[in-house]
Amino acid sequence: MAKKVMAVYDGDPLYTERFTEFINRKEQVPFSVMAFTTLERLKAYGEDHEIELLLIDSSVPREEIGKISAAFVVLLAEGEVVLPEEPYPSVYKYQAADRIMREVMKRYGDNPVETAYTMASKAGRIIGVYSPINRCLKTSFALAMGQLLARDLKVLYLNFEDCSGFGRLMGEEYKTGLSDLLYYYSQEGFRWMRLGAVVYTWGDLDYVPPVEYPEDLCQVNGQMMAELVSHIARESTYGSIILDLGQFGKKAAEVLEVCDVVYMPVKDDWVSAAKVEEFEEYLVSSGHEALKNRIQKIKPPYHGNFGRRDNYLEQLLWGELGDYTRQLLRQSL
User: Fold this and answer.
1) Beta partners for 265?
2) Which of 59, 215, 229, 231 has the greatest CB tally within 10 Å of its CB?
3) How far is CA 128 from CA 44, 122, 156, in A?
4) pLDDT by residue (tens digit) across 81-112?
C-alpha cells in the first residue's frame, strides 16, 4: 500500500528543507513527506496528486491555501495566538520538530473524517522487561537496551509503572502520554495518529510518557494492554518495542504473552528468589506455563555512582550496565 503524502511549505526554504529532512529521518509519520520551496510548485503538484496533510506557512493568503487540493491543512505559525475565525488549526513553528509533529498528529487525529490507515510493514519485535523483584535495575536496563537497539532500527519504549518518575528523570513536562493513548484506544481502537501524538524522543529512542495517574493503569486489564501493544507492533514503523512492565501485578502474564522474549532481572538473596518462584508458580496455575521458555533471567551489574540525572544517558551507554547490555544483545539478538 502506497503511503499518503504530507506536503510542507514555508516561506523560508531552509526551514522547509531542514524540517522535512528531520521528519523523514525520524519516520514518525506514516506519510511520504515532501518539501516545497515555492508556492507555485506546491500548487502544480496538488493539481495532479492527492495531498493528505498540508503543513503550510500561515502568511500564505487563505484563498491561496483553499486552491490547493489537500484533505487536511495545518498552519505553521510564527505566533501561538490563533483567531477564532481561523479556518485551519495551527502550530507554532519555532519549536522542536518532534514537538511540532506531536501537535500536528493530535490535530489530524482529532479530524472526524480521517480514514483508517494501516502501515504495510513487518511486525516489530516485542521485548518485555519484567521482574517481581524491586530495585533490580529493570528500568535502567530497559532504557540502555532501547538506546543501543535504536542505533540500528526504530525502537519504541513503553513504561507501565504507576509511579515512574519519568518527568523528573527527563526534565520534561508532558502534555500527553500513555494515559491519553489508553483512553483513545478504549474509545476507538488503534489509530497511528494517536500514537504519533504522544511519542517523545530521548537520544535515539522514542518513548511514550507513562501514565499521569496510577489509577489510569487500574482501569486497564491485561488483555487490552496486550492488544494495544500487538497493534503497535503490526501497524507502526517500529522494528522493536520494549515493554517495561514494572509492578504490573499478575496482569503482567497476559502482556508478556505477546512478547518474543522477556528479560527478568533477578538477585541472589533468598527473598528475591522466593518472589521469582511465586511468579513462576502463578504462570503454571494460570495457564501461562509456556511463557517460562521465553524468560531469560539476567543479573545487571550494580555500581555506586549510577543514576545521576545530569549524565544519566551517558552512564547508561558507557558504564558497566551499557557494557553488560551490549554483550547480552550480541549473544541473543
Assistant:
1) 298
2) 229
3) 48, 19, 12
4) 455 567 888 888 888 888 888 888 888 877 65
